[in-house]
Design goal:
single chain; 403 residues; alpha+beta; DNA polymerase, domain 1; hpI Integrase, Chain A; 3 domains; five-stranded mixed beta sheet; three-stranded antiparallel beta sheet; 17 helices
Length: 403
């Protein structure tokens, strides 16, 4: 231990206080987690350094050895301290990205490119992504005139920027799409659109939870609001953005339907509202009384996707699920379980809002219903042997084979 710590002969009645070191809002913070106790809270407030985090449900202050020693001395008589392993780790905060060095002339070109994308009715997410790629590319070429840009400049950008950053193949494909659109917008440059080719997509199978794991996840989500969110993500196969944008007026309890407005690709679609979800839904509505959106943050604003990911990770740990689980994992699991229950791919495609049937086809690779009906050659061999007289089995399994 590199700091003062006194902990001897604690009575069993003392509550446990867990100390953690966490990066919170781009700062390294000392967090205190404990069951509600007025005496402890009064002592913490007296220090005037600690703030309450509604997101992480803990008190926190700037991390320092001085603050650590101070909390030990202040609460030594009230609690049993439990040090999380994070206290001994070196955490680093990512520095904010410096402003790009781009000439005013080129900045104006980028602004017009963004207007061009919005004029083509690309989503704001796509506009932001393509803007980032083009701005990085133009910063990389420095003072080279845009009219002289060539395919070799794109290749060097990939070699010098993309590869060191270890971007995925899908990100590389997005970058090529952005360059192709920039060529359409700025035809004066010498980039050859036809020679720019996107690499093939990686064929990575999605992570799937079993139906038992989904139930374990929901059982270990104690907060009814959080449980309602996870249950809806799974039972209706929603994307995280669709859940956050879902308005109460688009939920039809009588018809057990939800209409998703302007989903991915600006498409509306209907999804099912599970009958078994209705009691939890009614309980959630009565407890939290949302006004506009299905799930709301403070001041009736939209809930954040990061909050969903945080409590989902807590539930995953409590459920002892040793897989990486994200909100989209619940959507993948929904589609796979539908397929295993005999629902046709065409209906699943409609429910998920996929434009192409090829996208939905990936779930045929992870659905286990048909795969389980395929017998291994070893099983077939042992079954055939079990039907063979023992004397013949000895001959078959011996080393003296007759040709």
């Amino acid at each position: 231990m590199y700091f003062w710590y006194a902990m001897t002969n604690f009575p069993n009645k003392k509550p446990i206080l867990i100390l953690k070191k966490i990066i919170h809002r781009k700062e390294i913070r000392l967090f205190l987690f404990f069951s509600y106790d007025d005496a402890i809270i009064i002592k913490i407030r007296e220090l005037k350094k600690y703030r309450w985090s509604r997101t992480l449900r803990g008190w926190h202050a700037s991390f320092s050895i001085e603050n650590l020693n101070q909390i030990y001395k202040t609460l030594n008589s009230l609690v049993i301290f439990k040090n999380d392993p994070s206290l001994y780790k070196d955490l680093s905060v990512k520095s904010r990205r410096a402003n790009r060095t781009i000439s005013e002339e080129n900045k104006e070109v980028i602004r017009r490119f963004v207007k061009f994308l919005r004029g083509k009715y690309y989503s704001e997410s796509t506009v932001k992504t393509y803007f980032t790629f083009i701005a990085d590319f133009i910063e990389y070429i420095k003072d080279k005139p845009l009219e002289e840009l060539s395919n070799r400049d794109v290749e060097k950008f990939v070699e010098d920027v993309f590869l060191p950053r270890k971007y995925s193949v899908s990100t590389y494909r997005q970058m090529i799409s952005a360059i192709k659109l920039f060529k359409t917008f700025y035809p004066q440059c010498k980039i050859d659109n036809l020679e720019l080719k996107r690499p093939k997509k990686s064929k990575i199978l999605p992570t799937i939870l079993s139906q038992e794991e989904v139930l374990d996840l929901l059982r270990n989500t104690r907060n009814s609001k959080h449980r309602a969110i996870l249950a809806l993500l799974y039972s209706s196969g929603l994307r995280i953005g669709e859940l956050i944008d879902l308005e109460l007026c688009n939920i039809n309890i009588d018809r057990r339907q939800i209409i998703i407005k302007s989903g991915k690709g600006r498409k509306d679609r209907y999804v099912i509202l599970a009958e078994s979800f209705l009691p939890l839904l009614q309980n959630y509505f009565m407890t939290y009384q949302p006004k506009k959106y299905f799930v709301e943050g403070p001041l009736q604003k939209k809930y954040s996707a990061s909050s969903v990911r945080k409590f989902l990770e807590r539930s995953r740990k409590l459920a002892n699920i040793n897989k990486k689980v994200t909100p989209h994992t619940l959507r993948h699991s929904y589609a796979t379980h539908l397929l295993e229950n005999g629902i046709g791919l065409r209906y699943i495609q409609e429910l998920l809002g996929h434009s192409k049937p090829e996208t939905t086809m990936i779930y045929t690779h992870v659905a286990k219903k048909d795969l389980l009906e395929i017998k291994s050659p070893l099983d077939t061999l042992l079954i055939s042997l079990s039907k063979t007289p023992k004397q013949e089995q000895n001959i078959l399994l011996s080393r003296n084979f007759k040709i």
